[in-house]
Amino acid sequence: MFRPVVASRLRGFGTTIFAEMSALAEATGSVNLGQGFPDYDGPQEVLDAAVTAIHDGLNQYPPGPGVTPLREAIATHQRRWYGMEVDPDTEVLVTAGATEAITAALLALCEPGDEVVVFEPTYDSYTAAISMAGAVPRFVPLSPAGDWDPADLTRAIGARTRLILLNTPHNPTGKVFSPEELAVVAEVASAADVLVVTDEVYEHLVFDGSHVPLAGLPGMAERTLTISSAGKTFSVTGWKIGWCAGPAALVGAVRTAKQFLTYVSGGPFQYAVATGLGLPDDTFLRQRDELRQRRDLLVSGLEELGAKVFVPAATYFATIDARSLGAPDGLEFCRRLPERCGVVAIPSQVFYQDRLVGAPYVRFAFCKRAEVLAEALDRLQKWGG
Ligand code: PMP
Ligand code: GLN
Fold it and tell me: Model's pTM, two decimal places?
């Protein structure tokens, strides 16, 4: 009897759009505004600290939960920026990027058949990780402009709901959930007595408004697992140092899953990220301000080309409605873009279960040097011509 090679829980996930589009950019010599990684380095102190750690011989397995200086730096970071208290010994776990923290959390917390409520568009690893955990996603629609209806959230919650997986600031929309919106999520989670896992990897890349961790809302610390990562904050996406923080029982559960996924990772980089988290506010704000300039450059350039742009309040990404450029389907647009213009972007429909809903939207990354963004905009002029 024919049996597919790939297990059913991984069927349909194939290769991530980011790998596919980066390979296409490479193959066609295109400017890559697809996968979200900076083409510039973060703070020199962080880079130097990694080199020093390597030279200091910190190159063997770090402890399972993460090196002490990093766990302490994460706890201090939560207090310094948000006034939240977590115990670095029992309530913090270092992971191989936020990706592992998310997957390990779902594996650790969900029984097969449990439901996980997520906003859609949904970062691509969520649906795969939910499936690997044997859980079932329930989607709450979020418009490209970041609007959503609390009634949809209430409707998505049911007897099998185990947790809400919330991404703020949100990829791909660039939305920052407001304190009022977070209060709605908190109220719904409390009323249904479900857990919340938050993905806050863009916490320091907020241009308009400010980032509020859900765990800081009254009564939420006890049911929320907060996930973040150094990749975006320090422009070191290749280091894959992430973490989660929250109640000891939740963090302990995640640790159980995590120790059999990677056990540990990135020893010397963990020390470097500890250094980074201890840098003065200025360093964080400078990175953010530079990125805001990159956003403004890309957004105004796209608007000049006639595109309808959803201006992101945060993150690395701006979304356009490709219909404004005469392209009804974003996937078709992204397939033709490298050849016609020498630019790569991401068709946002990959972030939707119902591809039709996301069909017109295209995501451009702006975490690139000004001259690269200018070159991309210049090339994009060929789209209409
Ligand atoms: N969550 C979101 C929303 C992301 O955009 C990304 C991409 N960097 C990740 C998680 C993954 O983070 P990491 O590279 O730390 O695994
Ligand atoms: N988070 C990055 C993005 O959204 C990509 C990370 C990855 O390649 N998995 O573009």
Answer: 0.97
